[in-house]
Amino acid sequence: MDYRTLRIDAAGNGRVTLTFTRADLMNRMDDESRAELITALVEVGRDSQTRSIVLAAEGQVFSAGGDFDMMRRKHGDRAAVQRGTEDARRLVETLNDVRVPLVAAMHGHAFGVGSTVVLSCDIVVASRGALLADSHVKVGLVAGDGGVVVWPANMGLVKAKRHLLTGDPLPAEEAHRLGVISDLVDTPDEVLPAAERIADSIAALPPLAVQGTKKSFNVAQRIRIAEVLELSGQYELETLHSDDLIEAIDAFQQKRVGVYEGR
Fold it and tell me: Are 164 and 151 a contacting pair, CB within 8 Å?
């Protein structure tokens, strides 16, 4: 199919690179980009020639996360919000269930659902100075689209709580020290080549061994997804209808302190 928000490049050796292409929108995640990422992962993952996948992005950031304009449009529309919640769960499940290893090339910041995408990958290459942040709480939302699953899985519960309950960013250098990021390079320009080298080395290995190992990891994470994601998604759905969400977006865009009433 033709994609509007990403590009697919096959290297010919079994490695495929998916690149977010909406640099002008900071690769934010909306209904269209989320649906295309799910479709591309399924399409590429099912191809018997695929041995590894790199997730990359154009522009200054990997992904700025959710789309505020979309949130405003859906505010009060329970059917639309419910569909979005279900699609968010599908994205996390799809990222987890891809049969070949995923390598994230995080050359710039990854916020909100962007951080979920990064931390759902099997290997993460990042540049010094890049930030990971799940700042749902700062805009009045529950971190229901995967953060409560992938952050604790990658760094432990105590550290995940520190960042998800405050929305404070995690610098790539600290993430590497904690083992959240597997490979740290000095500059953004070094990220994609490093990620592709790792993906190429995986693509050259015996595929049954690699994919069997990956599937074993998938099972463990799938259990956690089933336990947590539906409930956290429903909590997030409720906050998507809250007055505090609109106030938080307004405060962010107007660069002022928000005033929240818990409704």
Answer: yes
Give the mean pLDDT of 40-69.
93
Backbone angles phi, psi at 174, to 5 degrees: -70, -40
62 contacts: CB under 8 Å, gap ≥ 6: 20, 27, 104, 105, 106, 107, 108, 109, 110, 114, 118, 130
Domains, the chain, ordered by start? 6-190 (3.90.226.10)
Asked whether the beta carbons of 52 and 196 are under 8 A apart, the reply is no
The tokens describing 61, both together, are 């950031």
Instruction: Tell me the C-alpha distance between 35 and 85, whole Å.
Output: 12
Let me know: does 49 contact 18? Beta carbons within 8 Å: no
Confidence (pLDDT) at 122? 97
- Spatial CA neighbour of 250 closest among 139, 111, 143, 165: 139
Residue 163's nearest CA partner among 110, 238, 237 is 110
Dihedral sign from CA coordinates of 67, 149, 61, 200: negative
The Cα–Cα gap between 70 and 141 comes to 14
**How far, in Å, CA of 46 to CA of 50, rounded?**
8
For residue 105, give both structure tokens: 């090339």
- Provide the whole-model pTM: 0.91
Q: Cβ contacts of residue 133 below 8 Å, gap of 6+?
A: 109, 110, 111, 112, 115, 163, 167, 168, 169, 170
Sequence-ordered alpha helix ranges (H) in 31-139: 31-46, 68-74, 78-97, 113-119
Q: Which amino acid is at 199?
A: A
